[in-house]
Design brief:
There is one protein chain. Strand 3 and strand 4 form a beta hairpin. Helix content is 48%, strand content 18%. It contains 3 helices and 4 strands, in the order ββββααα. The chain folds into 2 domains: 71 residues, no CATH class; 33 residues.
Amino acid sequence: MQVIYATGRPRKFAFASADTKKNVPAGATVLAICDSANVTEHINGALFELLTDGKYYTLRALINDAAQAEAARPPVSPPAPPAVARGWFNSLSGWLSRADRADEQELHLA
């Protein structure tokens, strides 16, 4: 994920990006969040009117670069469940399989 933010005042914004929301400095204005599938922008009309053309095009270039970098990243695999959970699910699966086999045997005996 890339978080595009601005520090300073609107006509003198300094734009930057961070890999996580935690790395955005306190007091910064978040303007866009890019991940591998989406770009979410937070630029309202009042803010847009305060940006100079140069600042707006700098912001657009930063957002586009971040979106392209995120789209090129390999997908992140979800974390594996903890060993305790895997063991519990394996035990449950084994118990259910034995119960199904027992039910099938009862049906064949009847």
